[in-house]
Each structure stands twice: as structure tokens, then as C-alpha cells.
Amino acid sequence: MPFDKETEAPEAEEAIQMEETAENADAQQPAPEEDALAAAQAKAEEYLNLAQRVQADFDNYRKRTKATRAEAYEDGAREFIKLLLPVVDNLERAIQQESPDERMMTGVKLVYKQLTEALEKRGVTVIDRQGEKFDPALENAVMQGTDEEGEPGTVCAVLQKGYKMGDQVIRHAMVKVVAEA
Predict the structure, then answer these.
(1) How do residues 132-164 score in pLDDT, each as one tens digit?
(2) Whole-angstrom Cα distance, residue 38 to residue 110?
(3) Cα(143)–Cα(134) distance, rounded to whole angstroms?
(4) What is the pLDDT of residues 113-124, one digit of tens each?
(5) What is the SS3 string spanning the chain?
(6) pLDDT at 30
(7) In angstroms, what CA-CA distances link 12 with 2, 4, 7, 19, 61?
(8) Residue 2, class by beta-carbon neighbours within 10 Å (0-12 exposed, 13-18 middle, 19+ buried)?
(9) Contact status, residue 141 vs residue 134, Cβ threshold 8 Å
(10) Whole-prediction pTM value?
């Protein structure tokens, strides 16, 4: 068979182009090891992100429980102090009474002083607003006074002391208020 340039040349050129295309395709496609490495790195990054989110969630949980625990402690302290306030009232009444036994009165005064100091250390303060404008957030008006007892709308007598712990009222004061005209 004679050599025909027109028939042989296109076939040879086709073969060369196919080889080049195959080489280019091999060069563009990553090796299986590179695929596996990229997949492993992506998975590692995903796990790292997940671990960081879990750590952040746990830190938030720890902060919430710490705040809840502190709030519960303060609530318990306020409830306990509410139980002590009638004891303080009774000690005040005992001190106001006259007694022939001076040693007993001295003891009662010392117990009262010790109890009030302990309450003060805990942040408990007396609501004493006699002569000031009546505030329903701090006091309960249980009686009306006359104009001779003071300015209208003011507290003219404290019948039972009120107490606050910080900004929260533990017990409202029971007061007598001058009636407004």
C-alpha cells in the first residue's frame, strides 16, 4: 500500500492530540492521595468547628448555671431574713418595755444589737421614711392621719418597720399617711 499523506497524516495527528489530551487530563486530575488528603482536611476542619461550638455552648451553660445558682442563693437568703424580721420586731418591743431586771434588759439589747449588725452585714437596711412623701413601692398605708400630723400625702407614723436587701423590698413598712384634701 502506498503511503497516502492525506489519510495517514490526520490519523497521526489525531493520535498525538489524544496523547496530549490524556497527559493534560492526568495533570489536571489530582492523584487519589491528594483527594483523600483534601477530604481528611475538610473533615478535620468540620470536627474542629463542631468542637469549638460545643465548647462555647458549654461555657455559656456554665455561666448560666452560675448566675442561676447565685440568684437562688440570694432568694433563699431573703426568705430566711423574712423569717428573722418578726424576731427583730419582738426584740424591739422588749427593749421598749420597762423591766426591773437590768441584767436581762442588757442581754436583750446585746442580742438585738448582734442580730441587727448581722442583718446589716448581709445588706439589709431599714425603710424609715417618716416625714417623707408616701411611696407605695416601699410602704403600705394602713391608717390615715390628720392635717395636724404633717403635710398631706406624707408618712406621719411608722407602725411596723420595712426592710430592703439591696434594691429589693423584703418587707414593706406599715405606715400612717396624712390624708390629702
Answers:
(1) 999 999 999 999 988 888 888 899 999 999 999
(2) 79
(3) 12
(4) 999 999 999 999
(5) CCCCHHHHHHHHHHHHHHHHHHHHHHHHCCCHHHHHHHHHHHHHHHHHHHHHHHHHHHHHHHHHHHHHHHHHHHHHHHHHHHHHHHHHHHHHHHHHCCCCCHHHHHHHHHHHHHHHHHHHHCCEEEECCCCCECCCCCEEEEEEECHHHCCCCEEEEEEECEEEECCEEEECEEEEEECCC
(6) 60
(7) 16, 12, 9, 11, 73
(8) exposed
(9) yes
(10) 0.64
Q: Report the C-alpha gap between 22 and 83 in whole angstroms.
A: 90
Residues near 160 by beta carbon (within 8 Å), at least 6 away in sequence: 89, 173, 174
Q: How many CB atoms lie within 10 A of CB 32?
A: 8
**What residue type is 50 in one-letter code?**
L
pLDDT over 80 (residue 36) = yes
Tell the residue number behind the cell numbers 403600705, with chain if given.
Answer: 140
